[in-house]
Automatic annotation (TrEMBL):
<dbReference type="InterPro" id="IPR036721">
    <property type="entry name" value="RCK_C_sf"/>
</dbReference>
<dbReference type="GO" id="GO:0008324">
    <property type="term" value="F:monoatomic cation transmembrane transporter activity"/>
</dbReference>
<feature type="domain" description="RCK N-terminal">
    <location>
        <begin position="2"/>
        <end position="118"/>
    </location>
</feature>
<dbReference type="GO" id="GO:0006813">
    <property type="term" value="P:potassium ion transport"/>
</dbReference>
<dbReference type="InterPro" id="IPR003148">
    <property type="entry name" value="RCK_N"/>
</dbReference>
<dbReference type="InterPro" id="IPR006037">
    <property type="entry name" value="RCK_C"/>
</dbReference>
<feature type="domain" description="RCK C-terminal">
    <location>
        <begin position="135"/>
        <end position="220"/>
    </location>
</feature>
<dbReference type="InterPro" id="IPR050721">
    <property type="entry name" value="Trk_Ktr_HKT_K-transport"/>
</dbReference>
<dbReference type="Pfam" id="PF02080">
    <property type="entry name" value="TrkA_C"/>
</dbReference>
<dbReference type="Pfam" id="PF02254">
    <property type="entry name" value="TrkA_N"/>
</dbReference>
<dbReference type="InterPro" id="IPR036291">
    <property type="entry name" value="NAD(P)-bd_dom_sf"/>
</dbReference>
<protein>
    <submittedName>
        <fullName>Potassium transporter Trk</fullName>
    </submittedName>
</protein>
Amino acid sequence: MKREFAVIGLGRFGGSICRELSEEGMDVLAIDIHEEKINEYKNIVAHAVIADTTDENTLKELGIRNFEHVIVAIGENIQASILTTLMLKELGIKKITVKAQNDYHEKVLNKIGADHVVHPERDMGRRIAHNIISTNILDHLELSDDHSIVEVKAGSRMHGKTLIELDIRAQFGCNVVAIKQANDKQINVSPMADQIIDQDDVLIVIGADKDISRFEKQLV
Ligand code: ADP
């Protein structure tokens, strides 16, 4: 069964969501106020419509209420983004994801009941900053303001030791949830205490940022 998504605003972010959802076989309604955007996407998505979504009647006429998930990707025009979100909320849309342009925008969106507020530039910036600072942190996924999941490459200090010997949970308060082995590219999603770590194995670690940072400095 196809799931229905509506994406409002076909800038870089909304456009990329449209392409990806369509490639995954989803039925997407793409909406933008500008005709050239609609022309760009009409052959990519199932339906593409020129409309100003700050107008309540327009939203109703589009049948937006029939969509289970609406993504508001209006970027620069914060007022249009807030008004659209407010109206979608009033129309009873079950799931509304909105892109925030800055922290104030995010606050307002949370206040008016957006279900999921995303902040792609800020989050990607943070992620890249973490990757730049630490050569051993291969990737970084923020879970909350102070918890993350990171991918770290095991160095010589861990080589040849078992998880129990390294005692990461007790020493640093973080958990190794999976290990990608360097030699055979296998991923072990429930590593046992006696698993031996080799240099260049990739450990997927979950924990508080301060604990992960200690772990990284002392052991990686
Ligand atoms: P990004 O940073 O993701 O590229 P932009 O702000 O450049 O985001 O793009 C947002 C898109 O939203 C633009 O294509 C713009 O035409 C569209 N848009 C702006 N206001 C409205 C509106 N009221 N109704 C529908 N689409 C809108």
